[in-house]
Model the fold of this input.
Amino acid sequence: FVHVASAMGIIAGLGIEGMALKQLRTAGSSDEVKGALDDFRAGERVAGPAMGLTLLAGLYLAGAYWGWRQSWVDVALASIVLLAVIGGTMSGRTLGRLRGSATVAAVKDGIATLRMSFMLRTAILAGIVFLMTNKTTLWPSVLAIAIALALALVADFAIARRQTGLVASRGTMR
Done:
């Protein structure tokens, strides 16, 4: 129960982050940028503890029920490490820079990095859910995460192209 309920908390945190990302992308003033950055912090407050609980419950389940003999568990744990690295390096650094200079101009430089981080982390989580439900062997597990990441990159590229087209046609990123 704890594992699934806390995983739902991670998804809720990502939902808050997705809304904050949209808010940030459409911000037209420093006050709107600051409001969006506050919402990012709210997402972090939800997803952070939920990730901790999910990981603890998952480690317990892996030890108690799977005996650490399942390849999908190893790939899922490595994927969580990758998720943390992406979140810390891409989102963490960018949000830190934006919080230091909460201007609309600064947002234009950071929005693409934040969007890609969001897409990659969401894809990793979806890939982990696939691993948990299918309990695949090593190479299919690695392939599942690789496909999830590739799909995230393709989706991010498509969104970036669409938004770039909107910028050219409207003169804004709305």
Summary: The longest helix spans residues 30-66.
